[in-house]
Amino acid sequence: MWEKKPVLLMVLATAAILVGTIVTMVLPFVWVNTDADRIEGVTPYTPLQQEGRDLYIREGCNNCHTQTVRPLVAEVLRYGDYSKSGEFVYDRPFLWGSKRTGPDLARLGGKYPDAWHYQHMKSPRSMVPKTNMPDYDWLSDNPLSATVIRNKMETLGFPYTEAQIKALDGKNELDAMVAYLQKLGSDIPWRQAAEVTIVGDLDNPFPGDTEAIAAGKTLYVDNCAACHGDRREGGIGPELTELGMEDADLYRILHNGIADGGMPGFSSLGATRLWQLVTFLKSGE
Amino acid sequence: MEQPSYNTAYNTDIVRSFATWSLVWGLVAVLVGVIVSLQMVDPDLNFPPYLTFGRLRPIHTNAGIYGWGVGTIFATFLYMVQRLCKQPLWSDKLAKFQLWFFNATIIASAVTLLLGYTTSKEYHEMEWPIDIMVVVLWVAFAVNIIMTIIKRKEEQMYISLWYMMAALIGVAILYLVNAAAVPASLFKSYSAYAGTNDANVHWWFGHNAVAMALTAPPLAMFYYFLPKSTGVPIYSHRLSIVAFWSLIFMYLWTGAHHLLWTPVPDWVQTLAMAFSVMLIAPSWGSVINGYLSMNGQWHQMKENYLVKFLILGITFYGLQTLQGPMQAIRSFSAFIHYTDWVPAHIHMGTMGWVSMISFAAIYYLAPRIYGRELYSIPLANLHFWLVLVGQLIWTISLWVAGVVQAGMWNAMNADGSLTYTFMETMVEMYPYWWARVVGGVIFLLGIVVFIYNIYMTARKSEPAASAASAAGRA
């Protein structure tokens, strides 16, 4: 009967389409972005950060980078605490992405110092030789427009101060991008929560071991050289040629990083490789 | 062949124009695809600000979906609706407007995306002025199709018409809801939804755009062009009824399988997973109906190039609708999501299923819209093998890549630490990404052969002798 009545067919088809739509797409609005998943401490973007976010969108960064950490062991180890609904309430649009050609960025904020981002955005291959990320040095040629950014903040209804608008003077697109990247995932104190206190004695199992030194050297090239230099001469991070500190103290720093100093923790490398790194760094080679 | 090929009342000019333009945009889509695949292996091939991977990739996807995919939908629907209704198109003028507005929309999309005006929402990147153009375009199309159906002389509506009408409604609802945004300026808007809600709305759109633009329309084509090409009707009408209604009912529940393990509520994810698995049944309803329609006709796979495209197409649809539900299961998604496996899945659907059916449809139409016999069947066969081999190299290499990458991402040492850094996993991808370039270039060659064959048909070929010979049967 519906096969002979086009209007009836269309009404029935609309009804069929709407059932799943209402249950799985409309109904979640009752709970999502309400008090049920609100997180205190999550703040809207500042004018500079919001502009950086819009540039992230303009350049299609989301085509290669995701922004959600899933509650899976390997993923939390690699990127940090898993993402929570309440962290995204100011994200219009969402930028979770669908493909990790590059790493997830949901917990990037605060991982590296600003200097790392400037150098990496300008020339990713200068820090990570085999990456396929293109250079974004040209962003620093483009000044920001306070008028445009103010209008965006008004549209979004985000709070801002005249001082923040004034501070945009002389800033460029790269400044905005770095400001945005440094905000990512840092509204909740997950890094402090993830920090572990190492208990018991810390004894280097490989003191002076030549194999450990060789392994540590490889680890250094892959993980440390971008900031501390190929010959440990320093760069974004300090030079490391003459480390006077105890093995155990060095191990602690490598494990947890130095939050205020912009040094990320490398606990995901595991104890064996961290000791190899310590052994290499102390060997003076 | 109950219909004369050149019923003067039927509007074939508009079908020809849409077919021609869909070929142009198809070529652009594949060409840009090859360019971005090269950018993946060599970052020096990015030329900022306009020609970077981040800006070109949406042009590749949107030219493919809206230029090639929807262009072919326009051509074939406008052809099929007139014949299935035994009724000339309701408005030739509206169709003419639709043609020019279609091209204007595609060009405006490409230009604005190059300029960096994007919403970032996958397969819906165009900013709000273009959204309005898309809506106008779709309304013009829908009104013409629906009015033609309402004025039809054939009381019974054939299967293809059901899928057409579902697609018209489905795309309209999905596109409008997902487009909701607050403009900040002419080319910048902010989504009406935030964070987790935005993600859930978007993938409800994203997955069902696949359903309503890249599944229902190719099925409408398949149900029409397979019997037309083989000369044998569809095996089971009842099966096609069950498959149709269960397909359009179940699809809408599954969007969140793109968001498994994310902050979207667990129950939404679980429903998406369950319905995705259930969706195998209606999908395979059409696959099996297609295969059984070939009873006693399998010899045509050798003799009739149209049947080859159609049967390979429905076969890839069958594989796609098994692989998709597999990926929609939480445990497998945890492993494979975000890797290169997923683009390979999409490309089996687009290159293997949607494009194969569209190629067959355009080959079938060629003698009828250009009024000439197909220029070369051997070239059509060459085209078939190039796009098949190109697609298989593309997809198989990236499935392997995805498994390798997922394995490396998840590999852990005895002390609970990660075995590989992210860069170590990425470096492993380069050989596979090169294999994709090779697959893409072979597919592109296939498209070039196809376009050459159609071009020569339009320009140089013998006038079509009769409808029977024009059906592609040797």
What's the β-strand tally of chain B? 2
Mean pLDDT of chain A: 95
SSE arrangement of chain A, N to C = HHHHHHHHHHHHH
CA-atom Rg of chain A in angstroms: 24 Å
* Separation of the first and last Cα atoms of chain B: 15 Å
Determine the fraction of residues in helical runs of chain A and give it as a percent range: 40-55%
Biggest interface pair, counts: A-B, 88 and 95 residues
The quaternary state of the protein chains shown equals heterodimer
The unreliable regions of chain A are none
- Within CATH, the superfamily of chain B carries the name Cytochrome c oxidase-like, subunit I domain
Q: Decide which structural class fits the backbone of chain B.
A: mainly alpha
What overall geometry of chain A do the principal axes of the alpha carbons give? globular
Number of domains of chain B: 1
The general outline of chain B is globular
Order of helices and strands of chain B: HHHHHEEHHHHHHHHHHHHH
**In CATH, what is the homologous superfamily of the largest domain in chain A?**
Cytochrome c-like domain
The class by helix and strand makeup of chain A works out as: mainly alpha
> Quick check: average pLDDT of chain B?
95
How would you describe this structure in keywords?
heterodimer; A: 285 residues; mainly alpha; Cytochrome Bc1 Complex, Chain D, domain 2; 13 helices; globular; B: 474 residues; Cytochrome C Oxidase, Chain A; two-stranded antiparallel ribbon; 2 strands; disordered N terminus
